[in-house]
């Protein structure tokens, strides 16, 4: 693909296949509520569920980005976090001070993540913190101050929105909303199995910024990509975000 700039080693094992009945209603909250409620806590207590792949597969990419930031606390948002271990993994491993926000619109998912947080080891940096939020990722304006995050992570959330009836419009709104939350040096990292020839032009249109693509690896025969976007320069992101959401609705 013309969009693929650099290859990463394919050395990972963790892989999850989406259940078939989820695939057609992945933008609906009650679909996810049922999904996460059914996963429940199980006999062994709360457990992470990972879409596509887990934290380990991208830990190097994420930690390298965080270590490259200027000194001071780094703010990270996992948008549509589900019960993924991305936020907790970063808290455990990152030597710098982090303020991690994990956001999902599904209360059962957030409840499980909160239980996992309570059981997790202390953060690597003693002042690092993780907070969980129940909120709609397509209505982020007002949820956090604009331009406040160094890293926004989206693993499977844009993909879920794209599968809904107003897919590209809602997913485009999500991308614009995430970009509006980025600090000037911040990055939105989207992880997906969608081919760069389809996803990169969509992201460029929705975000209005250049998109870099990096291959994450091939797990269970499926190739995954990291799509990397910076903030828009020189315009008011909040207005632009509202314009985008209105335009796509
Ligand atoms: C494919 S799953 C990915 C979950 C998690 N990021 C992972 O990697 O395992 C999509 C997630 O997005 C959440 N989601 C979908 N639409 C959302 C929305 N509008 N606002 C917030 N969360 C949403 C779902 O509840 C679900 O947890």
Automatic annotation (TrEMBL):
<comment type="similarity">
    <text>Belongs to the methyltransferase superfamily.</text>
</comment>
<keyword id="KW-0496">Mitochondrion</keyword>
<dbReference type="GO" id="GO:0008168">
    <property type="term" value="F:methyltransferase activity"/>
</dbReference>
<keyword id="KW-0949">S-adenosyl-L-methionine</keyword>
<dbReference type="InterPro" id="IPR041698">
    <property type="entry name" value="Methyltransf_25"/>
</dbReference>
<feature type="domain" description="Methyltransferase">
    <location>
        <begin position="76"/>
        <end position="155"/>
    </location>
</feature>
<protein>
    <recommendedName>
        <fullName>Citrate synthase-lysine N-methyltransferase CSKMT, mitochondrial</fullName>
    </recommendedName>
</protein>
<comment type="function">
    <text>Protein-lysine methyltransferase that selectively trimethylates citrate synthase (CS) in mitochondria. Seems to conduct trimethylation in a highly distributive manner rather than in a processive manner, and thus introduces a single methyl group per binding event.</text>
</comment>
<keyword id="KW-0489">Methyltransferase</keyword>
<keyword id="KW-0809">Transit peptide</keyword>
<dbReference type="Pfam" id="PF13649">
    <property type="entry name" value="Methyltransf_25"/>
</dbReference>
<dbReference type="GO" id="GO:0005739">
    <property type="term" value="C:mitochondrion"/>
</dbReference>
<dbReference type="GO" id="GO:0032259">
    <property type="term" value="P:methylation"/>
</dbReference>
<dbReference type="InterPro" id="IPR051419">
    <property type="entry name" value="Lys/N-term_MeTrsfase_sf"/>
</dbReference>
<dbReference type="InterPro" id="IPR029063">
    <property type="entry name" value="SAM-dependent_MTases_sf"/>
</dbReference>
<keyword id="KW-0808">Transferase</keyword>
């Amino acid at each position: 693909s013309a969009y693929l700039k650099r290859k990463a080693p394919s050395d990972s094992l963790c892989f999850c296949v989406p259940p078939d009945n989820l695939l057609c209603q992945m933008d609906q909250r009650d679909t996810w509520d049922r999904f996460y409620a059914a996963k429940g806590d199980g006999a062994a207590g709360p457990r992470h569920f990972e879409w596509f792949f887990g934290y380990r597969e991208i830990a190097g990419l994420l930690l390298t980005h965080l270590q490259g930031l200027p000194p001071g606390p780094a703010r990270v948002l996992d948008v549509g976090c589900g019960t993924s271990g991305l936020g907790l993994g970063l808290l455990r491993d990152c030597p710098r001070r982090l303020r991690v926000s994990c956001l999902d619109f599904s209360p059962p998912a957030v409840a499980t993540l909160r239980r996992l947080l309570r059981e997790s080891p202390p953060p690597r940096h003693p002042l690092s913190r993780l907070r969980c939020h129940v909120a709609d990722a397509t209505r982020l304006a007002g949820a956090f101050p604009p331009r406040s995050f160094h890293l926004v992570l989206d693993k499977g959330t844009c993909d879920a929105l794209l599968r809904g009836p107003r897919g590209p419009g809602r997913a485009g709104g999500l991308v614009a909303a995430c970009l509006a939350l980025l600090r000037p040096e911040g990055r939105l990292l989207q992880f997906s199995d969608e081919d760069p020839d389809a996803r990169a032009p969509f992201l460029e249109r929705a975000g209005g910024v250049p998109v870099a693509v990096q291959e994450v690896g091939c797990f269970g025969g499926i190739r995954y990509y990291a799509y990397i976007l910076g903030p828009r320069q020189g315009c008011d992101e909040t207005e632009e975000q509202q314009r985008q959401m209105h335009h796509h609705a």
